Amino acid sequence: MWKATQATRRRWPLANSSRWIMSGRCAGQNNSGDWRLEISEPSSISNLQSLNMTHLSVPRIHFKGTFKANPPTANNVDIVDNVDAVQIGILNPQKLTDAEWKRWLMQTTPFGGGVQINAGWNYFGDGSVAFEETAVTSYQPQTGSHHIVDSSDPLAGATVALLGNHFGDFAFATMADLDPIGSYATQLYPGQFQLANAAQTPLLTGQGSVGHSRWVTQWRNLCFTLAPTACIWQVVLPNGNWHLPQTTVPVLNQLATVATQAKGIVVCFAVYTLFPRIGTAELAKRFAEGEHVANPAYGGLVGTIGVWEGDEVASLPVARRLRPVNKLTVQLDCQAGKQDRQPYKGVGKGEAATGDTQVTFPLGAALVAIDTTRRQIVLDLLATFPEINGLHHKVDVGKVGLWLETAVNRHYIGPIAYDQITYEQSAGVVELPWPADITANDLQNGNFVLLRDDDPQTPLIAESNDDWLVVTDNRATYAEIGETIEIELRVYRRGVLAQEAVGLRLGQYADRVLSAGTPENPFPDKQFVRLTPDEYLLDMPETVMVPVGGKLTVQLTARRPGIGMVLFVVGKTAVPDPANIDHIYASYANVRIFPLDNYDDVPDEALTWPFIYRHVFRYFYLLYPAMSIQGFPLNNQPAIERRAPIIKTMVSTALAESSVAMPITRDLSPGKRKLLLRWCDLAGS
């Protein structure tokens, strides 16, 4: 897959005021026709078995489209160890000049039986992300049946978009990696979220919280005709941060009413089969011809807009969870993906298959909630059944049903529709009637399981009595050496905050370059390793006890610079070896400790252009040319001096949580930020 110190510590409390008026539980309008909150006391929005239904409660609105990601890739090169991610600088074993270095990054090197561009697949990426051609497909109102949007519907043609924040000519959502080597620390800065009608008049707008890649998997394209990488995201629009004018769309009025009685609005979505559309050979040719082109990746996108409620965190849907138990082996006709634009050549992950191919794989997890008012079992298959190609055809594993296993019996709930059309219409959300022969006690204490009709003894995914989940919204945290950071943990059991004290064991891990390349073997050895206490990046307790209620804030003090992961394990005597960590569902927080970078002893007269270029601008000029393309030629002294006031604003901590913060990679240390701000003041004067 593919940050800011203050951004990771922001809380999302229920605001004291918003754009809604409520009197008790009855909605009213002000004179402008907008809604606002007059009484903010929480209330039960539906009779749920679990407080946490995430986006599965009603009302909810589903959408489908294309996800575009345009990340820069030169900071994660497999060909050579070219970046010091700890000290945040350039490694130049070839002793190249700046011009030679940039030319080399656009050239190719033999790799994995083919060639790879030295800067990766998107040297000119600007970090932007977007929802493209994304439209509302269906919705579930508070009462009545699931409604598929057609031409007569008031939401016909309604679109969903991430608009980002605006600063001058900048206006797009962005993503950034805390760890440029790893795959599990990507952050999404959505800025403004918008739902608009067919005429592009905004209906719902709001400032989205920072999202974090969750359930990152490598199997959402079983024929490997495009990249199989996928993940889910969740962002929230807390009360006070969203706006909904008076509307004639009933489901939107219902959403607004219910959301104000809860904590706000949630947007949960899956991104899958992302892959760039320009192949390596064509991209290298265009570079050689002097065309400096970006190569964004495009993939599938489905999601749900719902209510953020109860004890839910902001960045992950939490409900009762069914996890993979057994793998499936199926025979696939991979010719169905022959229209894919680009075959996948992922080293170590297999190559594009053609014709009949046998594939063994696990299903992904699913979430389940019970709506007792409507007597519906609500199942979330957002990340459960994989695709087989870039056309998003779903794998066919035969007829599948949802069952409930109790202490004395197994009850059939109903058949599961997981085909492509159904999945894309409702973003994987499936409802089944609550069978009359199943009691509320059965639902409370039983375990849900997915079974194939032709193999009812082999669970595909199943719920467990001991399904513990440790979650933090401080998923990506930044600090300086000596700084104490806080990680707010919530511990859930079967989707509910723990009703008993729970012991956690903590471990630290990191992606490391164990050895640099040699002329004989130019590829660096990069591995994920467990750190010994002497290697810890942070001072931390080895164990903590989470009290009844499932909430605890853990304090960690930064010891040395580096990038790592703090793993939280429930009730274990030892943390696992790196190879035994299930990264998809493991509970962890990513941390980046910046070097001190103290330049306080540099006098103003020494803070010249050559000095600031060498210590700050050069790193970004070489690795991230999009920052220059966007109007900041980072090697041009007069141009940068003229833009010093703009730069000062864009690197300020005030914009740290916005999508327009600079640098786009968010890896400017506080010490270098302080130096740069001082230089900006001198340049401006």
Write structural notes for this entry.
Helix content is about 15%, strand content about 35%. It is mainly beta and about 675 residues long. The protein folds into four domains: about 5-65 and about 125-460, no CATH class; about 75-115, no CATH class; about 470-595, Sandwich (Immunoglobulin-like), CATH 2.60.40; about 605-685, no CATH class. Strands 3, 8, 9, 10, 11, 12, 13, 14, 15, 16, 17, 18, 19 and 20 form a 14-stranded antiparallel sheet that branches. Strands 29-28-31-32-21-26-27-30 form an eight-stranded antiparallel sheet. Strands 34, 37, 38, 40, 42 and 43 form a six-stranded mixed sheet that branches. A hairpin with an 8-residue loop joins strand 11 (about 170-175) and strand 12. Helix 9 runs antiparallel to helix 10 (about 670-685). It is globular. The two termini are about 40 Å apart.
Which features characterize this protein?
10 helices, 685 residues, 14-stranded antiparallel β-sheet, single chain, 8-stranded antiparallel β-sheet, disordered N terminus
- The mean pLDDT is 87
> Quick one: biggest sheet?
14 strands, antiparallel
Q: What structural category arises from helix and sheet content?
A: mainly beta
Strand content: 35-45%
What is the general shape?
A: globular
Q: Number of domains in the coordinates?
A: 4
**What's the total count of β strands?**
43
The number of helical segments is 10
Unreliable spans are: 1-51, 339-351
Evaluate the radius of gyration: 25 Å
